[in-house]
Amino acid sequence: MKINYFAFGSNLSSPRLLQRIPLAAKHCVATLHGHSLRWHKSGHDRSGKCDIHFTGNQLDLVYGVIYRMSHAEKLELDVYEGAGRGYERRRVSVKAAHGEVLEAFTYFATDIDHLLQPYHWYKEHVLRGALEHDFPAHYVNRNIRAVESKHDYDVERHYRELSIYPESA
After folding, report:
1. In the 3-class helix/strand/coil scheme, how is the chain assigned residue by residue?
2. Per-domain residue ranges for the chain?
3. pLDDT at 88
4. Which superfamily is assigned to 3-168 in CATH?
5. Could you report the per-residue pLDDT of 33-83, keeping only the tens digit for each?
6. What are the CA-CA distances from residue 96 to residues 21, 30, 133 (Å)?
7. Closest residue by Cα to residue 12 from 106, 99, 151
């Protein structure tokens, strides 16, 4: 049986997610209302990662992608995402672009630092994913492009992260 995963950060990028979970399959674009996209999750590399922050305002929303995967793959993704060590896996109800309400799991940050910025390569994963899935331009510009990012002094990590995109290699 396949389960739904709501990706909203770097896993929006299908090359990024499929590198981790090769058999995951995109189902649809969806939105989570009453939340906003933040970049304040404290990464182990001392940079900001994406989080979905509860606002309670139904006008606030986070765009994401529903990927379908097996339970075993969900447990594998937990390891990549650091479930229990900075992120907590939770169930959410999201609205698919075609109107259906879907139940999915996703990750909420438990280790937050509002002063952190993402590395350029991390922001690039998120931006590429949003563009790949045709998110609205206003969402991309306000919630992704407008976010300040910083240089990663681990140059090898920077190039390794972006090497999954053929034009970056």
Report:
1. CCEEEEECCHHHCHHHHHHHCCCCEEEEEEEEECEEEEEEEECCCCCEEEEEEECCCCCCEEEEEEEEECHHHHHHHHHHHCECCCEEEEEEEEEECCCCEEEEEEEEECCECCCCCCEHHHHHHHHHHHHHCCCCHHHHHHHHHCCCCECCCCHHHHHHHHCCCHHHC
2. 3-168
3. 94
4. Gamma-glutamyl cyclotransferase-like (3.10.490.10)
5. 999 999 999 999 999 999 999 999 999 999 999 999 999 999 999 999 988
6. 22, 4, 13
7. 106
Residue in the block written with tokens 């404290």: 42
Tokens of 122: 């991390």
pLDDT for res 82: 87
- The Cβ of residue 11 has, within 10 Å, a number of other Cβ atoms equal to 28
